[in-house]
Design a protein that fits this description.
globular, Lysozyme-like, 5 strands, alpha/beta, 5-stranded mixed beta sheet
């Protein structure tokens, strides 16, 4: 056995021993990595801004940047445990701040002030780096099934805390499909957006609104003002209907869809 193979074997054995020694918490090794990375970021934050000027003056008026959006996803995986494994493997390059199981259990896996990798290439309004301003929440769901009541209740409890802690506007609770309409469909048309909106998490159309829309009404402008990326109108319409219509997600705006869109558009003006 050459030196390279011996080294690889030693590393593999060490990893196995590390997991075996912490069977009560299988994520103890990745927790150590988390703490090490957080410590390295803390060192950067503590550095004085004196790289160009040795006679620097530090302001006394600052705090941590805070999230201003919440993005809701479904995992499209088999279980919370599978998602936890996915989010603790460096090669996947994906993460979120919270995972909520079908049983309502909440896993907080990243400090809210740190930047998770959950949005990918995305845009909402003029914001094109969603990860830097948002909290990502993953719901254990395959995208083909309704969300359990206990899971939705846990989500709303969490959202109430986040909204209060960071003063997040109601309109800024949105889905992955909203910010990435050409790529994503989560959290699926089974997600109860109307129920959430009643608690102040996301907007919804009024129960009663105008029967007709003005002849001058431009659906593309309305979608853009709400926040959708309209460079691909087919994708934008589908994402809009996935969120606000749900019973029909074909990329065609019916007269009823236009009335809903017009009603929502006026809320964003």
């Amino acid at each position: 056995m050459n030196l390279k193979n011996k080294y690889s074997l030693l590393i593999s054995f060490s990893v196995l021993m590390a997991f075996a020694s912490c069977s009560s918490n299988p994520y103890a090794p990745t927790n150590k990595i988390y703490k090490r990375q957080a410590k390295s970021f803390a060192k950067i934050i503590k550095q004085a801004p004196d790289t160009l000027d040795k006679n620097w003056i530090g302001t006394t008026n600052f705090n941590l940047r805070k999230p201003n959006f919440v993005i809701i996803h479904h995992t499209a995986q088999k279980s919370s445990e599978q998602t936890l494994r996915t989010f603790t493997m460096p090669k996947t390059q994906v993460s979120a701040h919270y995972i909520i199981g079908g049983d309502g259990k909440v896993y907080h896996i990243l400090n809210d002030y740190l930047r998770a990798w959950h949005g990918g290439v995305a845009r909402w309004g003029n914001v094109n780096d969603i990860n830097s301003v948002s909290i990502g929440i993953e719901l254990d769901n395959d995208g083909l099934s309704p969300f359990s009541e206990i899971q939705v209740n846990s989500l709303m409890t969490l959202l109430a805390t986040l909204k209060k802690s960071y003063n997040i506007p109601a309109a800024n609770f949105i889905g992955h499909a909203d910010i990435a309409p050409a790529r994503k469909t989560d959290p699926s048309n089974y997600f109860p957006w109307q129920k959430l909106s009643e608690k102040g998490f996301g907007l919804w159309q009024d129960a009663f609104f105008v029967d007709t829309v003005p002849e001058s009404f431009n659906p593309q402008d309305a979608l853009r003002i709400i926040g959708y990326n309209t460079s691909d109108m087919t994708a934008a319409i589908r994402a809009f209907k996935l969120h606000f219509i749900q019973s029909d997600i074909t990329p065609i705006l019916t007269d009823e869809d236009k009335r809903v869109l017009y009603n929502l558009y006026r809320k964003y003006l």
